[in-house]
Amino acid sequence: MNLLIGIPAYNEEKMISRTLRSIPGKIKDISTVHIALVDDGSTDQTGKIAVGEGVTVLRHVINRGLGGALKTIFSYAQIYKPDILVTFDADGQHNGTDLARLIKPILSDSADVVIGSRWLKRGHAPATRRLANKIANIVTYLFFDIKTTDSQSGLRAFNRKALTSISVVTDGMEVSSEILKEVRRMKLRLFEIPIASVYTSYSKAKGQPLVNGINVLWQLVVRLLK
To answer: Looking at residue 34, what is its pLDDT?
Structure first.
């Protein structure tokens, strides 16, 4: 089994080395771990640092947004053809030690898509993040009839069936809800596992502001409710 880890990154020069080094080179039942980072039009040294860390770097000339970066990751996966794709945030919020548990339901063929949920166990997330995620979960359920405790999680795993079934069109943060829309549309098996989330002053500053939820909601209405 080979694993592709796709990392969308925009102006993450302060954290990207630490993030990449937190990913284990060996994972049980995985023969190959390959990392591909999408440098989404960064104006800093994110891409250069990632190249120095020995990972594959795919560069956007302009900043396309989270959805645009994930579309590039999915396209690359069609070429690389991994058994499992994992998306992993670049800001240091995720813990590399969660990867083995994240892919376990796929390895046992009990899930097609696995979400690492930050809310299945008690943590120290900012109140604004908890509120924003609850609103996003409700909107995702109302729009697409799919329940999840963490619709906006950036830590996800997909098997080959999911990779060939899911098709996303949005470029912004609304892509997280769109992925769940596709899970529902294609009748994919969804599973959640609890993960630890590391909140620092840096990751808090990089996160999505609550007011941006209005724009995300608008994009969901305009682009996805057809």
So the answer is: 98
Number of CB atoms found within 10 A of residue 127's CB = 7
**If we measure between CA atoms, which residue out of 140, 215, 133, 222 comes closest to residue 181?**
140
What's the DSSP call for residue 209? P
DSSP state of 222: I
Q: Is 79 helix (H, G, I), strand (E, B) or coil?
A: helix
Domain coverage including residue 82: 2-224
For residue 158, which amino acid is it? F
Q: Which residues pair with 39 in a beta bridge?
A: 9, 59
> Per-residue pLDDT tens for 65-77?
999 999 999 999 9
Q: How many residues are there in the chain?
A: 226
Distance between CA atoms of 60 and 47, rounded to whole angstroms?
Answer: 10
Residue 11: C-alpha distances to residues 46, 56, 96, 98, 113 (Å):
6, 17, 21, 24, 28
Sign of CA dihedral 189, 133, 170, 157: negative
Do the beta carbons of residue 94 and residue 198 sit within 8 Å? yes
Under 8 Å between Cβ of 113 and 190: yes
Q: Could you give the CA distance from residue 179 to residue 58 in angstroms, rounded to a whole number?
A: 21
Q: Where are the alpha helices (DSSP H) in the chain?
A: 16-21, 46-52, 66-80, 99-107, 127-144, 160-165, 175-185, 201-206, 212-219
| Paired tokens of 100 | 């083995």
What domain count does the chain have? 1
- What does pTM read for this prediction? 0.88
